[in-house]
Backbone:
């Protein structure tokens, strides 16, 4: 692809997007995978009304008037915005209007024209006592919190903890494209949670002989292992990379949305970052040299 790009990678229907504060023209670069040319730039960095400070995304795309658009979250400025590949702001939601005690919303999934799911980090209730990670469902038109999804107990922090329980409970998440479930990949526990938004039920599974949530101590622990590095999904499968972003095993575990193990994909290239095109069924893997390799997975869908 032309010119310099870096950062987190996302994709939809033949378009690759890269998010990075290191980009000169704007936070988000959009590319056409057919010719490698940049087709658009979005979100200038700054403190102006249509500028951003820090963006994240969870590969959430949607179509608006036949245009591919992407949801972006600026948790520092308190906005979630829908932008097209030419950089136009289609919609903006002020997350600071939500009825929440969270200082910011680290992950946001817009469900429909009035509802969104927000992932909030641990909040200190009083010194040493932390309210654990959780999802909350909001009506973003009124700001009202409709439901709270709490997966783990609140916990206490200890000064000599090598890896705090908060980090054990951290997860890499993706929402199913039909907005019905969330896959929560827990890298330090080697566990995958599949949360059903409508029913409120959670399925958890993982490899045996790995740390269990009930026996984690807040005492200083031995060497900590990270089992998973990244996650992607479509409406049929969940793709999870083995190892860390820095030490990728070359293996990608594949599960269905019922929690059943399907297969292991083995790729030759390093993958610090993966992205899956749910329309074209192409898996992209990017290494630490910013080289992108495409893998055609259409044969798994026949």
Residues:
């Amino acid at each position: 692809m032309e010119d310099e790009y870096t950062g987190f990678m996302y994709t939809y229907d033949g378009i690759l997007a890269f998010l990075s504060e290191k980009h000169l023209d704007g936070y988000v670069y959009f590319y056409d995978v057919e010719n490698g040319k940049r087709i658009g730039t979005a979100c200038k960095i700054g403190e102006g009304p249509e500028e951003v400070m820090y963006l994240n995304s969870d590969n959430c795309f949607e179509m608006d008037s036949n245009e591919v658009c992407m949801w972006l979250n600026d948790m520092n400025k308190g906005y979630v915005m829908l932008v097209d590949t030419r950089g136009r702001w289609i919609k903006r939601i002020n997350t600071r209007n939500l009825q929440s005690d969270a200082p910011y919303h680290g992950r946001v999934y817009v469900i429909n024209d009035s509802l969104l799911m927000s992932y909030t980090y641990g909040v200190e209730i009083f010194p040493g006592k932390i309210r654990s990670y959780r999802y909350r469902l909001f009506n973003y038109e009124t700001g009202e919190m409709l439901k709270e999804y709490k997966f783990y107990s609140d916990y206490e922090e200890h000064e000599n903890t090598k890896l705090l329980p908060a980090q054990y409970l951290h997860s890499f998440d993706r929402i199913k494209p039909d907005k019905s479930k969330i896959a929560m990949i827990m890298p330090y526990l080697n566990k995958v949670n599949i949360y059903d938004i409508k029913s409120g039920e959670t399925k958890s599974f993982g490899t045996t002989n790995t740390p269990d949530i009930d026996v984690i101590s807040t005492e200083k622990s031995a060497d900590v292992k990270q089992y998973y590095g990244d996650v992607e999904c479509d409406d049929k499968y969940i793709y999870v990379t083995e190892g860390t972003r820095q030490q990728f095993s070359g293996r990608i575990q594949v599960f269905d949305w019922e929690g059943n193990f399907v297969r292991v994909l083995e790729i030759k290239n390093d993958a610090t970052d993966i992205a899956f095109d749910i329309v074209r069924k192409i898996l992209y893997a990017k290494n630490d040299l910013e080289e992108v390799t495409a893998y055609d997975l259409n044969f798994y869908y026949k």
Q: What stands out?
A: The CA atoms of residues 107 and 260 lie 26 Å apart.
